[in-house]
Design a protein that fits this description.
The complex is a heterodimer of chains A (about 60) and B (about 210).
Chain A: H1 4-13, H2 21-33, H3 35-52, H4 54-63
Chain B: H1 10-15, H2 25-43, H3 46-61, H4 70-92, H5 134-137, H6 141-152, H7 158-166, H8 172-179, H9 183-204
Helix pairs in contact in B: 2-3, 2-4, 3-4, 6-9, 7-9
The chains are: A mainly alpha (about 60), B mainly alpha (about 210).
Chain lengths: ~60, ~210
């Protein structure tokens, strides 16, 4: 059974390589019961989204006027 | 552009193009400063960064009349800069400095164990909270100032490799060659950068909510 520390590593690794079926199932089972890790997983997507819209965000919203 | 060659200033670059946008020297100077800061972070070489910024600016300002406003110009000029940085990094891959390999061991003992208890579960006050509506935050100017501050506070090469991976979208092997580290070390650095960025954004921007693990 995975713990939270393992799950955070797998979330991070999933951005670099496809997780195996077993890893994906283990993470899925864990986050069903752990809102902390569920939030962590969602936030990894937000970080990526923020980085990819960095330039537009950093200036666009100040300059729209 | 060689180092011996005189580099044009923003005023020189924009002097031949008369648009209201280019008349705004404060905006252009600010843009150049931001570009230089970003290029220096990625290239770890002020001279190469200066060259990349100048070439990107010259390329973008040739078509400055086509832009409707500051945002469009800035997005365009950063897109050019991003490509310049990729070109330079790929050229540098053929001559990686051995000294770069020295960074590989930085903060080797950092494992964020303080975030977890002995069984590897979140400590109560470290558990990630729900962020509400994070997409809305991405549309707020203040969020980006916090994001940038969090990025700047990352230690060592973490900010550099994080943005290489997520903004410039280089693959792992290209980043490893550019920075002079192994793939496994890169994965550790990326993991640390994400953990730190997440925690920093939560502490300084997102309001903590209730969550149970």
């Amino acid at each position: 059974m995975l713990n939270c520390q393992n799950v955070t590593r797998l979330y991070s690794e999933s951005q670099e390589r496809p997780l195996t079926l077993q890893e994906r199932m283990s993470v899925k089972m864990h986050v069903m019961m752990c809102s902390g890790c569920r939030n962590f997983g969602e936030q990894m997507h937000i970080l990526r989204q923020a980085a990819r819209t960095y330039v537009q965000g950093a200036d666009g919203h100040a300059d729209k006027t | 552009m060689s180092n011996a060659e005189a580099k044009p200033s923003i005023t020189d670059i924009s002097a031949s193009v008369h648009t209201s946008l280019l008349a705004d020297t404060e905006f252009l100077n600010n843009l150049q400063r931001q570009m230089h800061k970003f290029a220096t972070l990625q290239l770890a070489d002020a001279h190469l960064a200066e060259d990349a910024v100048q070439e990107a600016l010259i390329g973008a300002l040739k078509n400055a009349g086509a832009f409707g406003g500051r945002s469009a110009l800035k997005t365009w000029v950063f897109a050019i800069l991003k490509n310049k940085i990729v070109d330079i990094l790929r050229q540098k891959q053929r001559m990686v400095e051995v000294s770069a390999l020295m960074h590989e061991d930085e903060e080797e003992d950092e494992d964020f164990s303080e975030l977890f208890d002995k069984k590897g579960y979140w400590q109560a006050d470290e558990r990630p909270a729900a962020w509400g509506n994070p997409e809305a935050s991405l549309r707020e100017g203040q969020f980006w100032r916090v994001f940038e501050a969090c990025l700047e506070n990352l230690p060592g090469h973490q900010a550099r490799v994080f943005m290489m991976r997520e903004f410039i979208e280089l693959d792992s092997h290209e980043i490893c060659t550019a920075v002079g580290i192994t793939v496994s070390n890169l994965n550790v650095m990326l993991h640390r950068s994400r953990i730190r960025l997440r925690k920093c954004l939560e502490s300084h921007w997102f309001v903590k909510g209730e969550s149970l693990c």
